[in-house]
Write a structure and sequence with these properties.
single chain, 130 residues, mainly beta, seven-stranded mixed beta sheet
Length: 130
């Protein structure tokens, strides 16, 4: 099913990955606000991984915040790349648009995306071409 013709109900019916399952790279992320609340008092968010305008799965369901380029903004696998806190972080390109049928927000970047584990905070990263 193509994300551009899906309704919110269609997104909600997708299966969840395991909380720590690595589904690989995808090219966009649909933000799906939930009615349930996090311990923080904010509403929880779920996210749909998308590749070539086709949904892959739901990613979280328990997060109240998304950290773009990870907590601190240092990028994917930053602890290995930068043993000490980096002085220079290369820029990234992030965009948000609104799907025509469901009205949900789609987050995408200038490349592929990798998602972190499904925890209280959800991290996503742009995969850089080395």
């Amino acid at each position: 099913m193509n994300i551009n013709t899906m309704k919110r109900k269609d997104f909600e019916k997708l299966s969840h990955r395991e909380w720590n399952e690595d589904i690989g790279e995808f090219d966009s992320l649909i933000i799906l606000p939930l009615k349930k609340r996090h311990d923080s008092g904010y509403r929880c968010l779920d996210f749909v991984a998308v590749k070539n305008d086709e949904p892959i799965c739901l990613l979280s369901g328990c997060s109240d915040v998304v950290h773009i380029e990870g907590v601190g903004g240092f990028g994917y696998d930053w602890r290995r790349k930068y043993p000490a806190c980096p002085h220079l972080v290369p820029p990234t390109q992030w965009n948000i648009d609104c799907l025509p049928v469901s009205g949900l927000l789609r987050l995408f970047c200038g490349g592929r995306i990798r998602g972190g584990t499904a925890l209280s905070s959800f991290e996503i990263y742009q995969i850089k071409e080395d």
